[in-house]
Amino acid sequence: MHSGDEVYITKTGKYYHYLDDSCLITARIVKGNMKSKKVLETEAQRLGYTLCRQCAKNMKEDTTLVEKQKDNSKTAPLLLMEAGLSFYLFSYKLVSGAFYKREK
Length: 104
Description:
The protein is α+β, with helices and mostly antiparallel strands and 104 residues long. It is 56% helix and 14% strand.
């Protein structure tokens, strides 16, 4: 869950929380050990709540992971093309006799 989505605010806290496994407050909310209210993130900000540090850290890690996956998805086709070209050249040399000793 990230920006623009629904978040949780507690009655006594001053932070809002994403639905995230790593946040201790969210874990308590999900287990039913802490009362909370679900609101839109923009509403929580308007009410003066700020993003919990643990949720902010997790959001930053998630964003970094997504960016890395996007970068990898750009290079994977190139690696496959390179592997295909290498296989083609190897097959050509094998069939054309480049790997066989030529007798004089």
